[in-house]
Amino acid sequence: MCSPSGRFFLSIIVVLMFSGFAAAQRPPADSEFGPVMRAYLGYLHNEQEVVDDRVSRREITTAYYRRNSNRIHALRTTAMRLVRESQNDYVPELEAVTADEFRMIFEHPPRPASFRQNEVVANKFRYLGSVRTGETFYVFARLDPYEQAELIQRERAKTASDTSGGGPAAQRVGDTTSRTRRVVPK
User: Fold this and answer.
1) Which strand (E) or helix (H) includes residue 175?
2) Rounded Cα gap, residues 116 and 41, in angstroms
3) Under DSSP, is residue 167 helix (H, G, I), strand (E, B) or coil?
4) What is the pTM assigned to this prediction?
C-alpha cells in the first residue's frame, strides 16, 4: 500500500488541512466591533505599519518611532474603551498628545492637572482621559461643528444675561430669534 514515508507525509497533509479549517472558522480578533470601529482599527494598523517601515529604513529616530507607536496604542485603547462602554459603533475624531505637544492643538495650552473626564476644553475638544504607554498621552475627542456652535451660543447667552443683570439677553444687531406665534381665539 503506502510506504512509511508516504504515510508520514499524508498525515502531515491531513493535520495541515484540519488546522487550516480551524483557522478559517475562528472569528477575527476585532469581530466584537462593527464596521466603523473595524475600519478605525485598520487605519491604526496601517499607521503602525508606516511607522514601522520608516524606522526600518532609518528615516526616523527611535525616539520618534517609540512616541508614535505609543500614541497609536493610546488611540487604539481609548477607541476600544469608548465603543465597548457606549455599545455604539461610532468613533469620534481622536487626538492623543503629550503635555509638551499641547501647543499643537491648543492656542493657549491648559494645565493637564485641571482636566476632568468628559470636560470640554477650549470649545473644541472633549477630554476623554489619559493613557500611560511609555509616557502619558492625553486623549481628546474633537467636537463636531454642531457641538461647537451650541457651546458658543450657550456662552454668549450666559455672557449676555450676566451683563444685563440677570434679565433676558439683549439681542444684538444681526442676531435672529424666533418666537412662538400667539393665537387669539375668535
Assistant:
1) none
2) 27
3) coil
4) 0.68
The span from the first CA to the last CA of the chain, in angstroms, equals: 106
DSSP bridge pairs for 138: 97, 130
CA 54 to chain CA mean position, Å: 24
Report domain extents, the chain.
25-147
Residues in contact with 172: Cβ distance below 8 Å, sequence separation at least 6, in sequence order: none
**Please, which contacts does 150-159 make with residues 24 or more away whose CB atoms are closer than 8 Å?**
151/120, 151/123, 152/123, 155/123
All residues at 6 or more sequence positions from 34 whose CB lies less than 8 Å from its CB, including other chains: 89
Question: DSSP letter string over 65-115?
Answer: HHHHHHHHHHHHHHHHHHHHHHT-S----EEEE-GGGGGGT-SSPPPGGG-
Query: Phi/psi at 97 (nearest 5 deg)?
Result: -135, 155
Q: What are phi and psi of 12, to 5 degrees?
A: -65, -40
The pLDDT tens digits for 62-121 are: 999 999 999 999 999 999 999 999 999 999 999 999 999 999 999 999 999 889 999 999
| Contact status, residue 169 vs residue 157, Cβ threshold 8 Å | yes
